[in-house]
């Protein structure tokens, strides 16, 4: 087994790679190169050898859900979210649309390290069988290389990458009245990204103690506001999986109907949003990060529907790439979102997240303002853009996070299998 050789990441993306962090107790992480890919890590493991985990997950709603998704869903149902050993991942092959043989391969992969429940994930090209001999040797190497410090976690995060240009990893510690707990999580994805789920894999690991039932409802809440609130190209993948494992090694217990639980839910949601944002920032060919915020809706669902419509509009995304403040495309998307709006109540603000002092009120109560093209040009010259829509219909709000469409996106996906 060839030893992992560290890869170089684009200078502009290195600011998103953590240099330090406090990882959860009781977990070990590792990555290795199995040979499925020509070079670099292509398998990853995160395991809890001494503390069994509770688990909760959200999976793709694509009807062609991949074999690892089917196997992981079955294991989760049979285990009722208890007794988990960890997560194992391969990249380079999605094991999707591979029929009964692919299901058998995923089951072999899930049983390779342990008879305890595990979440198994795969990502890469659709329609190809797993190279099981290589992957099993790679998993063994990943376990042998595993450890508990941040470098080991980064090695695992690198093992799940496909067209990603940097490993997406976050680690944080949270205090409670009775103690503390930690979270470390990774995600992958740069293309074929859209809610329900969004192609992506993500896993968060915490040493908090929480029941599987309570964790399940919390994960659903967090997913709706994070990984189900990002879009790069409107394509929902066959393999999307978002899982949270809690091993209780900190002895800090999270119980229902407590202040500690409300804080845990808030912390997990914000943690997941930050992981999801890293996917958008690494969108294939992306040059702009776009936060779309819809306020004043009758419900969270309607606010999100409007935001999602804007986020998936190729005309909006290409206008942002072209640095064209064509607000008519945004308003048009609001109008065909399917939500019953009152045009005379709609407002549109356009601003820079990088330089908040740069802001324009482009559309007020259904009527346009004259655009200050100089300010608009300065806003669009910054890397992070905020599009804020006010519907004037209620008190609910929702956000979507997306990026622009560039020439490079076409180039990347035209050559994906090359």
Automatic annotation (TrEMBL):
GO cellular component: mitochondrial matrix
BP GO annotations: L-arginine biosynthetic process; ornithine biosynthetic process
Active-site residues, record numbering mapped to chain: 199 (nucleophile)
Site, Involved in the stabilization of negative charge on the oxyanion by the formation of the oxyanion hole: residue positions: 123-124
Protein's UniProt keywords contain Transferase: yes
Subcellular location: Mitochondrion matrix
Alphabetized InterPro entries for the sequence: Arg_biosynth_ArgJ (IPR002813), ArgJ-like_dom_sf (IPR016117), ArgJ_beta_C (IPR042195)
One term of GO molecular function: L-glutamate N-acetyltransferase activity, acting on acetyl-L-ornithine as donor
Site entry: Cleavage: 198-199
Modification after translation (UniProt): The alpha and beta chains are autoproteolytically processed from a single precursor protein within the mitochondrion.
Superkingdom field: Eukaryota
Residues binding substrate: 162, 188, 199, 284, 413, 418
EC number(s) stated in the UniProt entry for this protein: 2.3.1.35, 2.3.1.1
Enzyme kind, highest EC tier: transferase
Catalytic activity: N(2)-acetyl-L-ornithine + L-glutamate = N-acetyl-L-glutamate + L-ornithine; L-glutamate + acetyl-CoA = N-acetyl-L-glutamate + CoA + H(+)
Pathway: Amino-acid biosynthesis; L-arginine biosynthesis; N(2)-acetyl-L-ornithine from L-glutamate: step 1/4; Amino-acid biosynthesis; L-arginine biosynthesis; L-ornithine and N-acetyl-L-glutamate from L-glutamate and N(2)-acetyl-L-ornithine (cyclic): step 1/1
Main localisation: mitochondrion
Keyword Amino-acid biosynthesis recorded: yes
Family that this chain belongs to: Belongs to the ArgJ family.
Assembly: Heterodimer of an alpha and a beta chain.
PANTHER family named among the record's database cross-references: ARGININE BIOSYNTHESIS BIFUNCTIONAL PROTEIN ARGJ, ARGININE BIOSYNTHESIS BIFUNCTIONAL PROTEIN ARGJ, MITOCHONDRIAL
Entry function: Catalyzes two activities which are involved in the cyclic version of arginine biosynthesis: the synthesis of acetylglutamate from glutamate and acetyl-CoA, and of ornithine by transacetylation between acetylornithine and glutamate.
Protein name from the UniProt record: Arginine biosynthesis bifunctional protein ArgJ, mitochondrial
Native species: Boothiomyces macroporosus
């Amino acid at each position: 087994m060839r030893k992992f050789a560290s890869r170089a990441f684009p200078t502009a993306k290195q600011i998103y790679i953590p240099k330090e962090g406090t990882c959860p107790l009781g977990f070990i992480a590792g990555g290795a190169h199995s040979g499925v890919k020509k070079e670099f890590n292509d398998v990853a493991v995160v395991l809890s050898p001494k503390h069994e985990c509770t688990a909760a997950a959200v999976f793709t709603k694509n009807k062609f859900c991949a074999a690892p998704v089917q196997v992981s869903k079955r294991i989760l149902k049979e285990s009722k979210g208890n007794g988990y050993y960890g997560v194992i991942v391969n990249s380079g092959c999605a094991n999707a649309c591979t029929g009964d043989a692919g299901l058998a391969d995923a089951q072999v992969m899930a049983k390779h390290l342990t008879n305890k429940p595990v979440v198994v994930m795969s990502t890469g090209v659709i329609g190809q069988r797993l190279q099981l001999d290589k992957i099993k040797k790679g998993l063994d190497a990943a376990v042998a290389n595993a450890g508990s410090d941040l470098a080991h976690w980064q090695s695992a995060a690198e093992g799940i990458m496909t067209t990603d240009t940097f490993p997406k990893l976050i680690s944080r510690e949270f205090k409670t009245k009775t103690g503390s707990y930690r979270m470390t999580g990774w995600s992958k994805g740069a293309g074929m990204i859209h809610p329900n789920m969004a192609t992506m894999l993500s896993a968060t690991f915490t040493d908090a103690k929480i029941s599987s039932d309570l964790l399940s409802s919390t994960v659903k809440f967090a997913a709706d506001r994070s990984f189900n609130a990002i879009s790069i190209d409107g394509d929902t993948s066959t393999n999307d999986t978002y899982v949270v494992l809690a091993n209780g090694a900190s002895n800090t217990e999270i119980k229902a109907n407590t202040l500690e639980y409300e804080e845990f839910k808030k912390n997990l949601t914000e943690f997941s949003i930050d992981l999801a944002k890293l996917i958008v920032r690494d969108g294939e060919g992306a040059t702009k990060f776009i936060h779309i915020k819809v306020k004043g809706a009758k419900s969270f669902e309607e606010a999100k529907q409007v935001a999602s419509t804007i986020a998936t509009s190729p005309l909006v995304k290409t206008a942002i790439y072209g640095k064209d403040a064509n607000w008519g495309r945004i308003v048009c998307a609001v109008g065909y979102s399917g939500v019953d709006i009152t045009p005379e109540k709609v407002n549109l603000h356009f601003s820079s997240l990088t330089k908040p002092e740069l802001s324009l009120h482009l559309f007020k109560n259904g009527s346009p303002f004259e655009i200050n093209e100089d300010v608009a040009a300065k806003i669009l010259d910054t890397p992070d853009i905020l599009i804020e829509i006010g519907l004037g219909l209620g008190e609910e709000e929702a956000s979507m996070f997306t990026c622009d469409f560039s020439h490079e996106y076409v180039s990347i996906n035209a050559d994906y299998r090359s």
